[in-house]
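Form 12-C: Joint structure prediction
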Amino acid sequence: MEYAVETFSLTKIFPDWWGREKVYAVDDLNLQVQYNEVFGLLGPNGSGKTTTLKLLLNLLYPTKGKALVLGGDSTDPQISARIGFMPEESYLYRYLNARETLDFYGRIFGLPAKVRKMRTEALLDMVGLKAVANRPVGTFSKGMARRIGLAQALINDPDLLILDEPTTGLDPIGTRQIKDLILELAKRGKTVLLCSHLLADVEDVCDRIAILYGGKIQSEGKVRELLQQTHKTQITTGSISDTAIEKIKQIVRNEQDDCVITSPMDKLETFFIKTVASAREQAQPTSGVVSDGTYISDFLTAGHAEKSRRAEILDKLVSAPVSPPASSEPPTTEHPTLVETSEPEPDEELLEKLTRQSKPAEPKHIVKPQPVESEVLQPEQLKKNVLDQLTDNPTPQNQQTDQTDKSQTGGSSDA
Amino acid sequence: MHSIWAVATNTIRQALRMKVALIFTILLLVLLPVMALSMPGDGTIKGRLQTFVSYGLSLTSLLLCLLTIVVSIFSLTNDIKQRQIFTVLTKPIRRFQLLLGKLLGVVLLDVALLLIFSAIIYAITVYTPRYLEAGEDELASLNNEFFTARTSLTPPKINVTQDVNDTYNRLKETGQLLPGSSRDEVIYVLTLRKELEKRAVPVGRELVWQFQNVKPLDPNQSLFIRFKYDVSVTPPDLNIHSRWVVGDDRQIKYGTEMKTPIYTFDRKDFIRTFHEIEVPADAVAEDNYLAVGFFNPPLNNTVVIFPPDDGLEVLYKADSFTANFIKAALLILLRLIFLACLGTLAASFLSFPVAVLFCLMIFLTGTISGFVLESFDVMSKNLTGIYSYTIRPIVQLLPQFDKWNPTKFLVPARLLSWPLLAKVAGLMVCVKAILVLLLALLIFTYREIAKVII
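Section 2 - Result
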């Protein structure tokens, strides 16, 4: 049980029609994913990422080798009850509506009706589909279907989350939300294995990555170690005077080196989210997903009171919350306890932006019955306490401190 | 169990919401009343009801069979094709549980639909006579010959082997055998001749059949002697005169005191059609013995022959029409369960169109299984042992839908007994369907679900 996922010379050969070996989809793969780690499987199209996941989940059988998931075989109900899987596309029963879909998956797990209902509602709330919960998922857009796909993967509060291309088909906001959620779950002690070819996504969330090509691992390691340019130093400041710049240049020159000074650019993602946020502020009507954007990032970036309320949703859905029962935690005005992104600077701005539009943050206490409203502008209001109800084991003390550390450093990758 | 149930309800929901079941349901809901109104049968109320029950049940059975095949295959192949199965199988559910869940869903759907439609057919059948003006006679014959469940006794087959062998030996000793003919051929011809002799009544002679185990429900009811004549020379008016004697003939033979009445009937009937003589049931002796005698009077001028199998039967009421109808519906259900298993098997390794084709082929072969089995038996006589040990057992596994056709029991108001139903259940479901299902589970457990995507 050392690793959450471990493979031993995993090999998958697809034979041609005559049974002759044709394609090595996965070739002698030895993969180790530690517990409580976000692991990214990277690679170009056709490099064997999805095949590897399918081998792990026994949707394909290996030609050679073996895969252990959570220390066992993933077909064992004991094991698979602890796995959440989101396939590369959301394959849903078109005739079921969103609520029935989640209820169906909950019933496969044998969750009691009460728990099932609570989790279903909480998840719908979290992925922002509450307003369309009674619509058949066959009428959903791709992004909405992805959200349901994600919700079904979380219905059982999995210890190991396997995500196949988690961000395809989602708009930048949705992408951002998924990334934030992954980080949140990792912080709550979950293990996440994801595969993607969208490098930006992987870079933002993964602790460790492996790059696959031709079914073989070409490179593997911690994202930081792989990407950090140890021979360079970056200093970021607020807007400073030309004389100060000159002084800095002088200092650098004294160190026998040269430096380039520019104004940092916003990431396009940040700009996009800003634009959409301001459009929402003006209450422009949108067709379809009313709740687009009322998602985890929302409740990470809204006012502090809302923030802690939203963390409750997650706490309710996840058995190991970051903080001791969130309802008992008074919402402080100082600590942005849950701000957690890999790009602290632009996010600060986003946070500010979204905070301004949200209701004045009354530090009122959060034990609210779970609301079922579907207002366009204040869906953030709903979230928080959902997670807490689902929480069965209170957080150990060390986890709390760990979390506080993280939020102070703003780091995302020390799991 | 909860996962099986979850899959089952989802399967039902799928069938209902994807409108597969809806189409069949509407079709039946429209067709059944139309049939009830538009089928006059042979003009009598009995004929009308017989036609309606026969066509109504056959149509229901056919449509439900098709529905079962389509739904059981679609449900699984669609999951695989649309890949919903990826998200389902990665949950804590074993593959066999998924298959059983789908099967359970289809069977439950079948039960519900069958219940609805057989109830409709039953209601129409029972209420039709009330709305049609029927005479006393017609109602009586309806009650005696349609709204009942009669058991039938046929005379035991007389073993002629000894007789045939004796005759053969005598012919051989006296040198009367035709040169060039083998023993088998002679025996075959002799057997046919001897058997015919036992069924034929020359002019001025009589034939007596003895039945044990005649157990009418109530001595105040009637027995029915059902018979059909064949003749060696067709009479000009196509009629046969006859005298029938029914009762305990031992009383006459041994001259004991008369305890039960003996009834005598003088009749004149058309040849080559079925007729029934109503006899009060008190003719049966205390030890359930009954003798039926036929006398061929000289008026006839021809040998009267009773055809094998259904030439002569004694019928009496053994159960109610309702009970028989329910059992007939159960017979259809057994058929549907088999087809659901078959559909599951086909879907476990074939794609939708191929699987449907495969099942339809088996289904159609099953509806003519009597013919198929006979043909194979005839063919295998001339073929090698390998053949009869490989193909024949497989052919034997075919479901015999035609042999257990519910209308075969309801139209002539024949009793479909529980032991018979149990036997069909044992054969069609417990043996054949389970075999098919096990094969399906085996294939599905070991196949790869995901397609080759690299």
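Section 3 - Comments
The radius of gyration of chain A is 22 Å. Chain A has 15 helices and ten strands.
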